[in-house]
Amino acid sequence: xxxxxxxxxxxxVLSDQSRLEILTILMDGKYHNVSELAKKTKIKSHTTSxxxxxxxxxxxxxxxxxxxxxxxxxxxxxVAELLEKLMNISPIKEIxxxxxxIELDKLKKGRSCYRHLAGKIGVDFFNFLVxxxxxxxxxNNLELTDKG
Length: 148
Hints:
alpha+beta; Arc Repressor Mutant, subunit A; 2 domains; 3-stranded antiparallel β-sheet; two-stranded antiparallel ribbon
């Protein structure tokens, strides 16, 4: 018999900076191997593997093997939505380097987040579709028009 949701297990996973970085990278909807994730998070491969194992146990991340490589991906849109919501309510960190500044500018301009376009390009594209009558937004309901 199933019991109550284990929120402590969820918050424990989210409390680790390295796991958060891995999840954030995986929000791009692409498949990444351990080496890529280790390089991007600046942690060792075996540590990355450890974190991925924990995320797989929660069924947040899944993997597939191709040749000698194992590729990991975010397997739940709910996890991506949770992370986005947490990002919206989280305090903003100060930028401490030129590289962080460049990365932030790129993210603001355009990015994909799990399965949707985001950033300024995403907003501009959405506004263009509304302006051209391809979609209409009324009372928080988005509808595709006949023209769209």
